[in-house]
Automatic annotation (TrEMBL):
<keyword id="KW-0133">Cell shape</keyword>
<dbReference type="GO" id="GO:0005886">
    <property type="term" value="C:plasma membrane"/>
</dbReference>
<protein>
    <recommendedName>
        <fullName>Cell shape-determining protein MreC</fullName>
    </recommendedName>
</protein>
<keyword id="KW-0175">Coiled coil</keyword>
<dbReference type="GO" id="GO:0008360">
    <property type="term" value="P:regulation of cell shape"/>
</dbReference>
<dbReference type="InterPro" id="IPR055342">
    <property type="entry name" value="MreC_beta-barrel_core"/>
</dbReference>
<feature type="domain" description="Rod shape-determining protein MreC beta-barrel core">
    <location>
        <begin position="169"/>
        <end position="266"/>
    </location>
</feature>
<dbReference type="InterPro" id="IPR007221">
    <property type="entry name" value="MreC"/>
</dbReference>
<feature type="coiled-coil region">
    <location>
        <begin position="94"/>
        <end position="121"/>
    </location>
</feature>
<comment type="similarity">
    <text>Belongs to the MreC family.</text>
</comment>
<dbReference type="InterPro" id="IPR042175">
    <property type="entry name" value="Cell/Rod_MreC_2"/>
</dbReference>
<comment type="function">
    <text>Involved in formation and maintenance of cell shape.</text>
</comment>
<dbReference type="Pfam" id="PF04085">
    <property type="entry name" value="MreC"/>
</dbReference>
Amino acid sequence: MLSVVGLKTSKDHRTTIISDSGHSSPRLTSLSSRLSKPFGIILIAAVIVFLQIKEYSPVVAARQYLTNLFSPVVYVVSLPFNWATSVRDYFITKEEMVAQNEQLKLQNEKLIRDRDAHRQIAQENLNLREALNVQVGLVDDITTIRISHHIYDGYTTVFYSPNSALGDLRKNDAILTTKGFLVGRIMEINTNYTKIMPINDPSSRVPVKFEGNAQQAVLAGEGSDSLRLIHVENPVGVRVGDRLVTSGVGGILPAGLPVAVVQSIGNVIKCVPLGQVRDQDFVLALSRTQA
């Protein structure tokens, strides 16, 4: 909008002033121009975020397309940086090397102290064995393990012991009570537990012999508290109360471990085990190297 103002000055001169009120000042125009771009970007970003939150399908599809399109490029561009990072792991500074050496020195000193302590304990155990006249090999091959629980599936019972770093347990190692009676053997060792099969399990077979003579037989589990004596060489010579020990036949179990006594004689020879796994909180695992 134009404004025209006429002024009369001295000597009959006239002066005309023209004002354009339709245009802003240059400074205001420049400020508006600078602010409009950021506000526009913010507005567009807000709209995109809103559509993304609402999972507007064209926006989601466009995002997936752009991600698939540029992901190989990002991967290729990042390869040198990843390689540089991996290479750096193979190099350490002098300070880091000194710190690692100090840590290794401390670990080495601890190992030396532990070694000396173990030597002292081993010497004390040796002196005690000599004083008690104990067979060294028998003690070395025995590991005490704890029975934690058992699972019965209606046919068989499996006992479980939590694994530990103590001892060198292996499959088919004999399981004894603290009194030395055979009650089972290790059937499986996994990450968490050692599984024990009792001698009264239906699938259990233990080669035995009579304690007073060399007559051979096999004790078969029946899933109950009693055992069945099968494959007896001379059934006529069996007597109630005869004691049965492992024969060592087959090489799985060592010979001479007490197992059961004859309970009754008839068409089937019944025996009662000298010990039961279910009655034990702790049992002994006997290594096969004792055989």
